[in-house]
Write a structure and sequence with these properties.
single chain, mainly alpha, 5 helices, about 0% strand
């Protein structure tokens, strides 16, 4: 009987810990949507306006489509923010979100963008 009580208490503790981790991860995704998404959208618009020419006119529709692409998923938004130096690894460390970043990149790996080495947006 005592073993069952101990096992139940351990299970309850483990489930509480998992709930705490899930809430921290959801707060991290919310932080990306609230803080990084507008910065990434602005950076995309700045880059496209700066590279506007006759060959690539980068119209408003193109800018909106590019902004939608980069901000559609949290992982892609964070990837762009890291790549374009909007935030850095130190920001992830100071906010305690290194593990959440790794987890986000793992679960949304099919949504990550592929950068070529010569293209720095």
């Amino acid at each position: 009987m005592e073993i069952v009580v101990i096992a139940a208490a351990m299970l309850l503790c483990w489930m509480t810990w998992q709930l705490y981790r899930a809430k921290r991860f959801n707060r991290f995704k919310q932080l990306i949507r609230q803080e990084l998404k507008p910065k990434v959208a602005n950076k995309v618009a700045e880059n496209l306006l700066a590279t506007r020419n006759k060959l690539t006119p980068n119209t408003d529709i193109h800018i909106k489509a590019s902004q939608y692409y980069w901000t559609q998923y949290s992982a892609r938004t964070l990837q762009a923010a890291l790549r374009w130096k909007i935030v850095d690894e130190e920001w992830l460390r100071s906010t305690g979100n290194i593990r959440n970043c790794q987890h986000l990149f793992y679960i949304e790996k099919d949504k990550l963008a592929e950068f070529s080495e010569e293209s720095e947006a």
